[in-house]
Amino acid sequence: MLPDLQLALAKLQVDRNLGRSYSGLLALTEGLHVLGCLNDAAYKALKERYSQKLECTVVVAPEQPRPPHTLSEAKEQARLKKIESNLSDVIKQWNTMKPQSRDYWVKQAEEYKDKVSNAKMVLALASEAGGPIKQETLNVEVS
Q: Residue 65 falls within a domain, yes or no?
């Protein structure tokens, strides 16, 4: 399609709040009527049909986490992601870990409990005094 026609159709679409197809069909209807190819009854029916405005709804996309702007922010995000992964492994292996290892990871979880979601799960496991993992804990999604 020629750029001038595309621009004209886009202008018609915006001016009349029409969808892309309807703006083209309305322009075609108007042109065919002016050229005498459409009688008045058909023209009125088609014009009414293709002049229906779009229903406007505003869709707001969920906020995406912003990408890091600096190298230090990128390194921090990578470090936290690694800690998250490590804590995920700790959760899976909790029942088989030695007490010294558990203590180490509990300290790590304390340090990162406000930054890493799996840290809270490790702390919850530790608060059970080293008992076996309950079934509810196993059903929690681990990233």
A: no
Cα(142)–Cα(84) distance, integer angstroms: 9
What pLDDT score was predicted for residue 138?
43
pLDDT tens across 77-114, in order? 899 999 999 999 998 998 899 999 999 999 999 999 89
pLDDT reported for residue 32: 92
Using CA atoms, how far residue 26 sits from 33, 63, 91, 120, in Å, is 11, 38, 63, 60
Shared domain for 41 and 87, answered yes or no, is no
Would residue 58 count as lying in a domain? no
CB 21 within 8 A of CB 49: no
**Radius of gyration (C-alpha) of the chain in whole angstroms:** 31
Same domain for 82 and 46, yes or no, is: no
C-alpha closest to that of 19 among 29, 28, 9: 9
Range of the domain at 45: 3-50
> Do 40 and 87 belong together in one domain?
no
pTM strictly above 0.70: no
